[in-house]
């Protein structure tokens, strides 16, 4: 808790203090520590579904580092059930301060959300995020569009069609998705509103497609359609400023990486909410930002991250965190 308070003083905005704060006394202690330092919101999740509890206990024993040294499953189970009984003895439901209670919301249907003494922008966003997020395993497939004519010429932005290689990729991608998602009842294909992503999705059949403006490539403003060489020659100050701070640099009449990250918030919430697979066909800068969110990469790495063409990054979201696989469909 002291580490967290230090971090808040250093400019942190939201921290998660994960511990067994299941007694009133303990929570009052935390509130006392937070006084004048930060705001506390308690988050209590209550689950009354026997099956889900059993599944969680099983996963805990199989996957948690707490039980890494316990090869005997039954012994682990016994230990964990004892832990639960001990917690139950001292447990006092959260009734003080600001809190969010999520009751039987794991399944994504029914359930109840209690919100007490919460106000302000950030706390409101936290409630919104929690309502939409879950741990049901499902894959998210990220890919850039197939190579475009502007890619061939080294020009940024624009709205050109695919090159021959780009078209070939769109077919390979459709094949891949058909095989990869054939056992999935539902899945959706998300593209930007630019034709290079829409054309990349065209050969994919059997899944609904959604166009998001928020998935459009970074707006390169007055530099749209130019090569990096031309920008360097015609607008050397712009070129240098971008080189110095690519994350914050905003193209005149265009966007910065920080702008892109901000406009992706609704896309991220929607991806968190989905329980079925989603294929996102978008652009280099946008995918750098999206990927960094899911792979938990620091902000400063976003603008220079490798995001090759003709490659699918599969992110598997689930209880154990995020796993990643890459498929390169063309040489
Ligand atoms: O070159 C392809 C592209 O998607 C451009 O349209 C876009 O401006 C650029 O990549 C983003 O990458 P960077 O931020 O490295 O210039």
TrEMBL record:
Q: Where would I find the 6-phosphofructo-2-kinase domain in this sequence?
A: 1-137
Q: Give me the Gene Ontology terms describing cellular component.
A: cytosol
Quick check: keyword ATP-binding in the entry?
yes
Output the PROSITE patterns linked to this UniProt entry: PG_MUTASE (PS00175)
Q: Which GO terms describe its molecular function?
A: 6-phosphofructo-2-kinase activity; ATP binding; fructose-2,6-bisphosphate 2-phosphatase activity
For substrate, which residues are the binding ones?
144-151, 196
Q: Does the keyword Nucleotide-binding apply?
A: yes
Any Pfam family the entry gives: His_Phos_1
Keywords (alphabetical) are:
ATP-binding, Nucleotide-binding
Instruction: Extract one GO BP annotation from the record.
Output: fructose metabolic process
Q: What is this protein called?
A: 6-phosphofructo-2-kinase domain-containing protein
């Amino acid at each position: 808790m002291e580490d967290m308070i230090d971090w808040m003083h250093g400019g942190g905005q939201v921290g998660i203090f994960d511990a067994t704060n299941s007694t009133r006394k303990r929570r009052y202690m935390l509130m006392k520590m937070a006084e004048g330092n930060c705001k506390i919101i308690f988050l209590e999740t209550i689950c009354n579904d026997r099956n889900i509890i059993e599944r969680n206990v099983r996963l805990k024993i199989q996957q948690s580092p707490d039980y890494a040294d316990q090869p005997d499953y039954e012994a682990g189970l016994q230990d964990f059930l004892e832990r639960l009984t001990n917690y139950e003895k001292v447990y006092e439901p959260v009734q003080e301060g600001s809190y969010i209670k999520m009751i039987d919301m794991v399944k994504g249907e029914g359930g109840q959300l209690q919100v007490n003494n919460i106000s302000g922008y950030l706390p409101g966003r936290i409630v919104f995020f929690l309502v939409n997020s879950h741990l049901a395993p499902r894959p998210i497939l990220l890919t850039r569009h197939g190579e475009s004519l502007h890619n061939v010429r080294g020009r940024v932005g624009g709205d050109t069609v695919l090159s021959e290689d780009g078209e070939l990729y769109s077919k390979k991608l459709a094949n891949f998705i058909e095989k990869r998602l054939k056992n999935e009842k539902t899945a959706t294909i998300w593209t930007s509103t630019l034709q290079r992503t829409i054309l990349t999705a065209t050969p994919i059949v059997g899944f609904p497609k959604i166009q998001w403006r928020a998935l459009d490539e970074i707006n390169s403003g007055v530099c749209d359609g130019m090569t990096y060489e031309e920008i360097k020659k015609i607008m050397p100050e712009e070129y240098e400023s971008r080189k110095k701070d690519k994350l914050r640099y905003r193209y005149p009449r265009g966007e910065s990486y920080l702008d892109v990250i901000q406009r992706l918030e609704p896309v991220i919430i929607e991806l968190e909410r989905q329980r079925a697979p989603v294929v996102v066909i978008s652009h280099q800068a946008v995918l750098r930002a999206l990927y960094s969110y899911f792979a938990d990469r620091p902000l400063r790495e976003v603008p220079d991250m490798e995001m090759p063409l003709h490659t699918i990054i599969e992110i598997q979201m689930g209880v154990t965190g995020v796993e990643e696989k890459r498929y390169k469909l063309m040489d």
